[in-house]
Amino acid sequence: MLTYQIEDTVEAEEFKEVLINSTLGERRPVDEPERIAGMLKYANLIATARDSGKLIGVARSLTDFVYCTYLSDLAVDENYQKMGIGKELIRLTKEHSPKAKLILLAAPKAVGYYPKIGMTQWEQCYVLDNVEDLK
User: Fold this and answer.
1) Cα–Cα distance measured from residue 130 to residue 86, given in angstroms and rounded to the nearest whole number
2) 123: Cβ–Cβ under 8 A, 6 or more apart, which residues?
3) What share of the chain is helix, strand, coil (3-state, %, to 5)?
4) Which residues neighbour 103 within 8 Å (Cβ) at sequence distance 6 or greater?
5) Is the per-residue pLDDT at 123 higher than 90?
6) CB-based burial, 42-51: b 16+ in 10 Å, e otherwise
7) Residue by residue, what is the 3-state secondary structure of 65-126?
8) Cβ atoms of residues 67 and 99 within 8 Å
9) pLDDT at residue 109 tops 90
């Protein structure tokens, strides 16, 4: 039985497992337990999907609830993909921050997914990994 909810906390090990099982783990620090724990500690909006209690999907966001919600991680276990779980996690996230614009950076394998569910693509995104790169 699938259940969706907003959770205050998620265990680091189950979060890591769903990241790996979704392929998002390829771009996340799954081998750095302190960073995984920090990602959960500082997130302030976590939507989850569970199958009989097992975490099979997560949408981890940072938001001010009134202007912007940055959906940093949307991960659904590959065994549960193409069942509408990702879309439902996005819906739950947006419903809990209705005034805020929901923003995310698509993983390369998911670029084609977001337009299909009604999200608008923008070209104006920039990323800075190292402060030394500022000119």
Assistant:
1) 31
2) none
3) 35, 25, 40
4) 68, 69, 70, 71
5) no
6) ebebbbbbbe
7) CCCEEEEEEEEECHHHCCCCHHHHHHHHHHHCCCCCEEECCCCHHHCCHHHHCCCCCCCCCC
8) yes
9) no
The rounded distance, in Å, linking the Cα atoms of 10 and 12 is 6
> Torsions phi, psi of 10, nearest 5?
-130, 140
Mean pLDDT confidence for 42-59 = 97
d(CA 104, CA 126): 12
* Residue showing tokens 């940072």: 62
Contacts of 133 by beta carbon, 8 Å cutoff, 6+ apart: none
Look at residue 23 and tell me whether its pLDDT is greater than 90.
no
- Sign for the pseudo-dihedral over CA of 41, 44, 47, 50: positive
pLDDT of residue 53: 96
Q: How far apart are CA 36 and CA 93, in angstroms?
A: 20
83 Rama class: left (phi>0) / alpha (psi -120 to 50) / beta: alpha
**Token pair recorded at residue 91:** 């819906």
